[in-house]
Design a protein that fits this description.
The chain is mainly beta. The chain is built from 5 helices and 47 strands.
Length: 631
């Protein structure tokens, strides 16, 4: 890499001097990845089931002590909640569940659930090509044609396959990938995929970032390597987050100069990459690095890039930061970066006060003595519509001492302050949220917030809530866990560092979510759900069927498939199995379905591989018409 220029920006905000360094660089480590040839290299490895805790044992112990202090100040109690964002609006503000399925990774024909935490991430194109990643594998599927995007011999290539195409030296030998992020750019109709490599090795730590050459992920990708020790100061890179505007991709990374987040946290930096050059696959990629973000002498942590509602937009990029390890705090920072790589950049840092305090979340309870680790209160997702920003993160609900979601709203970025909301429940605990816009125009304020849930009586799954025009709808369970999670030797399980959520830009008010759930074998898995805003009822179904909110699992299926749905009234269902050509395969006759939650199950193992529709009708019309893929 070659340094082109070095700038120093001095800004005075609230009487505090802010020194932000800006440095231009060319990324020269680049290569082309031929996705069609991503072979199953069958590399054998033995690794610990748990990804290293960010910052090591000392950081975990430090957070544990803070959680104990928080628990003493805000004790865990079981009382009905008043005023919490837990369904204050009517059932008409419920999201519709249009489709759902488990993302299954296989090795030698057996399900592979990977390590922990999941680190779920997702991207879906306007053409219905979906990419999902967790841990160190990439899964791609063409939803329109019901086919895998990558070759059948390796339908979910490991991250190493993207590095094996590199013909240089320095990144492939012994490399391991983690912390994936996926992004779909509807303006360019391209995908972005990145992951980190080589962990805490300051000599080899790096970020691999790849840009699809077309809108079809099976075609070639242009890949680049960003140095994980960019200032040659003995630091390594962790926890990537990305967002795009009209001209650039912005990537935030945390730099550490040792294994401990308490004493070895150095700073959070921003990389800015030129999008036109990246999509063209130029050999030397123009970039810019921003460093030195601080307030009152303390470095700001976890700068959360803010996505824009209808895809990449504008010349500015905003970032949200807070005091993630605070027991209770109302301070939140808004950072703005302006300018393309061909222009001189400017930065601003503003301190905002929230009318509702956030704080470090407690452990979240599972069955028995098992718990989930909730990390800290950093912002985990952010979305901007015009001058209004919505962001979400973990917090403690100070009323009952349980893990909850903080939903913050910055009404005007030009005169910023924060209105805070706590999304909580009497019994169920929540964590690791993300947020996506579902409105039709820039005047709408419609959002979906997706998050994990757990309680001693509710095995780990994921839920969602719809927000519109100042109010939250009811909390909806998208995927109920099959069992509690028990993957580690300790009672404290990893719950995931983030959740995947993206709007499908050419569909009306619809989004796809990749969330966490507990398998029946007590391991964690990834569950994908297609959601629609309340105004967008599924085409061809009546209101009764929409409110049933069908859940299908698993899909694709080898033998047994189940359909879970809720009915307002008892009905008699006449169920049939239909071929993809509309021919009747099997008439299953009539069965009584009661008011409330129902589960329809059937064994498809006697049918040839292919696509089928399960049709269930009552006297009032079609209640289920669901597509199932038989493996």
């Amino acid at each position: 890499m070659r340094t082109i220029s070095l700038l120093l920006v001095l800004i005075s905000l609230n009487g505090i001097a802010q020194n932000v360094k800006i440095e231009d660089r060319l990324i020269k480590t680049s290569w082309r990845v031929t996705a069609q040839d991503l072979a199953n290299d069958m590399k054998f490895s033995i690794r610990n089931s748990e990804a290293p805790f960010p910052g090591g044992d000392r950081e975990k112990q430090e957070l544990l002590e803070l959680k104990k202090i928080s628990a003493a100040q805000f004790p865990r109690i079981d009382i009905p909640l008043e005023g919490a964002a837990r369904g204050s609006r009517s059932e008409n503000d419920s999201l519709s569940i249009l489709d759902s399925f488990a993302v299954r990774f296989f090795f030698n024909g057996n399900p592979l659930t990977g390590g922990t935490p999941n680190d779920n991430t997702l991207a879906i194109s306007n053409d219905g090509n979906i990419l999902v990643s967790y841990n160190s594998q990439l899964w791609g599927y063409d939803l329109q044609n019901d086919t895998f995007l990558f070759k059948s011999t390796n339908p979910h290539p490991g991250f190493g396959a993207f590095m094996n195409s590199y013909t240089g030296s320095g990144i492939t030998s012994g490399s391991s990938g983690f912390d994936p992020k996926l992004y779909y750019d509807p303006s360019a109709d391209r995908f972005v995929f990145l992951f980190l490599t080589n962990g805490r090795d300051t000599n080899r730590s790096s970020t691999v970032i790849a840009f699809s050459s077309t809108n079809y992920p099976s075609n070639d990708w242009y890949a680049y390597e960003l140095d994980g020790n960019p200032f040659k100061d003995g630091t390594w890179t962790d926890y990537p987050q990305i967002a795009l505007n009209n001209h650039s991709l912005y990537l935030t990374l945390n730099q550490l100069n040792g294994p401990d987040w308490v004493t070895n946290f150095d700073q959070t930096i921003i990389w800015q990459l030129d999008l036109d050059s990246a999509y063209a696959g130029v050999a030397e990629l123009p970039t810019r690095i921003y460093s030195g973000f601080e307030y009152e002498g303390k470095n700001l942590r976890y700068l959360r890039p803010v996505k824009t509602a209808f895809g990449p937009d504008g010349d500015d990029m905003y970032f949200i930061s807070n005091r993630p390890r605070a027991i209770s705090n109302d301070s939140i920072w808004l950072i703005r970066v302006t300018g393309s790589l061909s222009e001189t950049s400017t930065t601003e840092i503003s301190l905002m006060d929230s009318d509702t305090e956030y704080g470090i979340p407690p452990y979240a309870a599972q069955q028995g003595a098992k718990t989930f680790w909730t990390n800290d209160a950093r912002p985990l997702g952010a979305m901007r519509v015009q001058n209004e920003i919505h962001f979400v993160g973990n917090t403690i609900n100070q009323t009952n001492g349980k893990a909850a979601i903080f939903h913050g709203i910055v009404k005007d970025v030009e005169n910023p302050s924060v209105a805070g909301h706590i999304i909580a429940h009497d019994e169920i605990e929540f964590g690791f949220p993300n947020i996506e816009f579902l409105g039709l125009t820039e005047l709408d304020r419609d959002f979906v917030i997706n998050f994990n849930h757990t309680s001693p009586n509710h095995p780990a799954g994921n839920s969602a809530i719809f927000y519109t025009n100042g109010g939250h709808g009811p909390i909806q369970l998208l995927k109920k866990g099959d069992a509690y999670v028990d993957m580690l030797t300790s009672d404290d399980e990893r719950w995931g560092d983030y959740i995947g959520l993206q709007r499908k830009y050419n569909a009306t008010s619809r989004a796809f979510a990749a969330g966490y759930f507990g398998h029946g074998n007590n391991r964690s898995g990834t569950w994908v759900t297609e959601l629609a805003a309340p105004r967008d009822w599924p085409v061809g179904l009546n209101e009764e069927s929409v409110k049933s909110q069908t859940r299908i699992f698993p899909n694709p299926v080898s033998n047994y498939v189940s359909f879970e749905f809720t009915l307002p009234n008892a009905v008699v269902l006449h169920t049939k199995v239909i071929s993809v050509n509309g021919a009747l395969i099997r008439d299953l006759g009539n069965k009584q379905a009661k008011a409330g939650l129902n589960e329809l199950s059937l064994d498809l193992s006697s049918l040839p591989s292919g696509i089928y529709f399960i049709l269930a009708e009552s006297e009032s019309g079609v209640l289920l018409n669901e597509k199932v893929v038989r493996n």
